[in-house]
Design goal:
The chain is an all-alpha fold and 331 residues long. It has 14 helices and 2 strands, in the order αβααβααααααααααα. Helix 4 runs antiparallel to helix 7 and helix 12 packs across helix 14 (314-329).
């Protein structure tokens, strides 16, 4: 279903205004602004072309800038809450007592209820954190790979659908098995669609990497076209994952998949740093020097293999997990 003309104009106006201020847009910006339920691939392509025509590039998220903004916003929220809730929990204020009931009542007497502004600030912070986490998960090829495994388990009947997606309140109350089967089929279909899109995205990503090596970062029509294709497909994947309404348990499974590979990256990088430093020291035994070089070479090969296996580089893997951690801290 295509975006209505008025909705399309509103979306483009917001994106052009935001892109004009920032001088660029990220996948997160597009994910946030584009309506989840009414965006077709043609709509996304149209939006990307218009942004390109307005000299507003769409690039991978600059996580460092995003993280700085998140910290500033979080600090602002915490300061506003601190202004609303100044607690005097000193012994003089509470008075010394061994009676737990009296102590509880006295503590409640000096702890003010949250103001409406405080409640709104907390709700907004949680929403921002959930959104940041969801976007980071949806953008990660590692999470998509784990989602494929979940889909295979559902198809094989070895996974419980109630542990994967959230049911409607009515379906939860009735425990209707027909509804469970309906949810299972719907989820399998959704994951199969994600698998199909991700295969297309992988092909375009490989073309993009090859073109980047040829052009060495120089701009060109082919490079721009490939970036636009990858951006469109990533957005489609993110939207499809969002529609699944996954349970916290399933969501954590995707996060843990990212975390496990990030650990491999971190361990390999530490090994490279450690043995590279040892090689700079004076008076190294020939056998030790040979072993240190072997360790460095092996660690570098592991990083190359990680990128080949998961179709994502070490830097992006670490950035994804950083975004998830920051998002979870805000919830």
């Amino acid at each position: 279903m295509s975006i209505e003309d008025k909705d399309r104009d509103d979306v483009m106006e917001r994106l052009l205004e935001l892109g004009g201020d920032k001088k660029y847009l990220t996948f997160d910006d597009l994910n946030r602004e584009l309506p989840d339920n009414v965006v077709s691939p043609d709509d996304i392509e149209d939006v990307l072309q218009k942004l390109e025509g307005s000299n507003i590039p769409v690039a991978d998220s600059d996580e460092r800038l995003l993280e700085q903004a998140a910290v500033v916003v979080a600090d602002d929220d915490e300061e506003s809450l601190d202004d609303d809730i100044e607690l005097d929990l000193s012994a003089g204020a509470l008075e010394k007592t061994n009676d737990p009931v009296r102590l509880y009542l006295r503590e409640m007497g000096v702890v003010p209820l949250l103001t409406r502004e405080g409640e709104v600030a907390i709700a907004k912070r949680i929403e921002r954190g959930q959104l940041k986490t969801q976007k980071a998960i949806a953008r990660s090829p590692l999470a998509v790979q784990e989602l494929h495994r979940i889909g295979e388990a559902l198809e094989a009947g070895t996974a419980n659908i109630r542990e994967i997606v959230l049911f409607s309140e009515q379906a939860e109350l009735t425990g209707d098995e027909d509804k469970a089967e309906e949810y299972r089929n719907w989820t399998i279909e959704g994951i199969q669609n994600i698998r199909k899109i991700s295969k297309q995205a992988l092909k375009e990503w490989e073309k993009l990497r090859a073109e980047q090596k040829i052009t060495r970062g120089k701009k060109g029509k082919k490079l721009t076209r490939l970036r636009r294709k990858v951006a469109r497909l990533r957005l489609e994947i993110a939207q499809e994952i969002g529609r699944l309404s996954m349970t916290e348990r399933a969501r954590q499974r995707l996060i843990n998949a990212i975390r496990a590979v990030q650990k491999d990256v971190r361990d390999s990088e530490r090994e490279i740093t450690n043995y590279t430093e040892k090689l700079t020291k004076k008076r190294i035994k020939p056998d030790d020097q040979k072993e240190f070089k072997r360790r460095v070479s092996a660690a570098k090969k592991r990083l190359v293999q990680i990128e080949a296996d998961h179709h994502v580089g070490p830097v992006e893997i670490k950035r994804s997990l950083q975004s998830i951690v920051i998002g979870e801290q805000q919830t």
